[in-house]
Q: What sequence folds into this?
């Protein structure tokens, strides 16, 4: 990969880590103050998008664009990865999901009557693809999605770890 794009990919990767750290802090604060959970989710979604964009830059040697424009859709980003990278990412996600403790899914079902089922990576990415865009302006999201559960991001850690591990596989020096 040309040096300039690799430098840019590393910069985007660093920003993904910063937003991820902010999301973790907001999640901790959200245990006492539920109003912190929405900005936590927005930062998580932005972080994941940036990890995917960094991966795309490493994998394809270019910025991700749809019809010449930048895009937030990390499901589409996933589809544009090379097959070898995509398969590695899928394998990482399968491993993360098989190691996952699904107690939280049981809690959602019993306490909130929400039945969340683990799916394949692509299905989760399609479901979460527009989460950052939707949640930036929560009043619009609430109006459009009243009664729906598509904003739940319980599998973000497994997706994040899968993308992170794929990046580190390609760029081992970036591991911190």
A:
């Amino acid at each position: 990969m040309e040096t300039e794009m690799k430098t840019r990919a590393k910069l985007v990767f660093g920003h993904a880590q910063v937003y991820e750290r902010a999301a973790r802090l907001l999640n901790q604060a959200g245990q006492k103050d539920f109003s912190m959970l929405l900005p936590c989710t927005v930062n998580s979604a932005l972080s994941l998008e940036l990890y995917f964009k960094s991966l795309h830059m490493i994998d394809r040697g270019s910025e991700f664009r749809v019809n010449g424009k930048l895009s937030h859709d990390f499901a589409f980003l996933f589809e544009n990865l090379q097959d070898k990278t995509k398969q590695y990412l899928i394998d990482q996600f399968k491993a993360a999901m098989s190691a996952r403790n699904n107690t939280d899914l049981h809690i959602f079902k019993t306490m909130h009557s929400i039945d969340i089922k683990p799916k394949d990576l692509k299905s989760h990415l399609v479901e979460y693809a527009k989460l950052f865009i939707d949640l930036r302006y929560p009043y619009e999201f609430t109006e459009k999605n009243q009664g729906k559960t598509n904003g739940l991001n319980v599998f973000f850690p497994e997706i994040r770890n899968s993308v992170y591990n794929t990046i580190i596989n390609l760029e081992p020096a970036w591991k911190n």
Summary: Residues 3-174 form one domain.
